[in-house]
Automatic annotation (TrEMBL):
CDD domains: GH27. GO terms for biological process: glycoside catabolic process; glycosphingolipid catabolic process; oligosaccharide metabolic process. It is found in: Lysosome. Pfam families: Melibiase_2, Melibiase_2_C. It comes from Pelecanoides urinatrix (Common diving petrel). It comes from the Eukaryota. This is Alpha-galactosidase. Homodimer. Belongs to the glycosyl hydrolase 27 family. The keyword Signal applies. Keywords: Disulfide bond, Glycoprotein, Glycosidase, Hydrolase, Lipid metabolism, Lysosome, Signal. One of its GO terms (cellular component) is membrane. GO terms for molecular function: alpha-galactosidase activity.
Length: 400
């Protein structure tokens, strides 16, 4: 694996909350203040994250996405927040977020305009990095719209990485670099990992099962090139984005488009893939079931495992997929995914010799089910088979 960006950050996949998928580019605070991208939204979300267990579960970043800016830079050429929607400015918002024991993320673009048409960072990389650092920003999500040529795209990502490090402030650097390269050329992940803490690979995540399914299918298809590069300091982001309708590696659990089984699948598979966990939902109004799933300590422990290995698909049999992720302490996370969308629960039986190249259960292993409910399966020998019942579009997550 390539050496990671040397800023010492993102030793495990970052976790937090992001406004984009749920709140999009809402700027009409007069008509709809509760859904407007504004200072009020982030203050309220920080309050909830601190008070209702989200921070304590590991969700530490409160991230501003596109549409936070004023239409123009100030008289000194610096980015500025929209004065009506962010009357106190980003620095005071960062201070407030920090007072809650949380960190603030912000958004910009490698090109001359953001995806939504606000001022981009082209030819202002060093100035913008200094501005973000002076405000107390802790994470930069750097998009790739309006960047011109691929050479300018790459140069912009490299320059912003160096500029952020030069500020002396610890700022996680989240890139869209490989997504914008893929239509033309294979990304050089070794280089990308040397400049970025995590990077987006695939199209937008939407609040729908088809979106989650497509991300999983793409990841399995490309796992030979992306799994080996992930590790402490640099992570594959299955769907990190923000073009006009593009989002960060977002958990859309707690919104409207996923069934319970599909929500379980997203949480389980994002843990298997060692993906950054950024929720995009309204934490002020979330069901107890969604909260339980998103704050599930056993699943989060798998996602945050210090070994830092990304999981992968080891077999596919009709509608069933078997995935594993090596964990610290010679353990494995195992996911059994049922892609079928009709009918009822079905059983999938597999030999434990499949796991860990035959080593996971040699000579014996204990098996604990993590999702959809926690229960102890007991001790199995190396030559045993396991039969797992899985609901349509659902996943059973195990720790072996």
């Amino acid at each position: 694996a390539a050496l990671a960006l040397d800023n010492g950050l993102a030793r495990t996949p970052p976790m937090g909350w992001l406004h984009w998928e749920r709140f999009l580019c809402g700027t009409d605070c007069a008509t709809d203040p509760r859904r407007c991208v504004s200072e009020q939204l982030f203050v309220e979300m920080a309050d909830v994250m601190a008070a209702e267990g989200w921070r304590d579960a590991g969700y530490e970043f409160v991230c501003i996405d596109d549409c936070w800016m004023a239409p123009t830079r100030d008289e000194h050429g610096r980015l500025q927040a929209d004065p009506k929607r962010f009357p106190s400015g980003i620095h005071k918002l960062a201070n407030y977020v920090h007072s809650k024991g949380l960190k603030l993320g912000i958004y910009s673009d490698v090109g001359n305009k953001t995806c939504a048409g606000f001022p981009g960072s082209y030819n202002h990389y060093e100035l913008d990095a200094q501005t973000f650092a002076s405000w107390g920003v802790d994470l930069l999500k750097f998009d790739g719209c309006n960047s011109g040529t691929l050479e300018l795209l790459a140069e912009g990502y490299r320059r912003m990485s160096l500029a952020l490090n030069k500020t002396g402030r610890s700022i996680v650097y989240s890139c869209e670099w490989p997504f914008y390269l893929r239509p033309v050329q294979q990304p050089n992940y070794t280089e990308i990992k040397q400049y970025c803490n995590h990077w987006r690979n695939f199209f937008d995540v939407y609040d729908s099962w088809s979106s989650i399914k497509n991300i999983l299918d793409w990841t399995a298809l490309h796992q030979d090139s992306i799994v080996k590069i992930a590790g402490p300091g640099g992570w594959n982001d299955p769907d990190m984005a923000t073009s006009i309708f593009v989002f960060m590696s977002q958990l859309v659990i707690g919104n409207f488009g996923l069934s319970w089984d599909q929500a379980v699948t997203q949480m389980a598979m994002w843990a298997i893939m060692a993906a950054p966990l950024f929720m995009s939902n309204d934490l002020r109004h979330i069901s107890p079931e969604a909260k339980w799933l998103l704050q599930n300590k056993e699943v989060i422990a798998i996602n945050q495992d210090p070994l830092g290995k990304q999981g992968y698909q080891i077999t596919k049999d009709k509608n069933f997929e078997l995935w594993e992720r090596p964990l610290s302490g010679q353990a494995y996370a195992v996911a059994v995914l049922n892609q079928q969308e009709i009918g009822g629960p079905q059983n999938f039986t597999f030999s434990l010799t499949f796991l860990g190249n035959g080593l996971a259960c040699n000579p014996v292993c204990s098996i604990q089910q993590v999702l959809p409910v926690s229960r102890n399966w007991g001790v199995y020998s190396w030559v045993s088979s396991l039969s797992v019942e899985v609901n349509p579009t659902g996943t059973v997550l195990l720790k072996v």
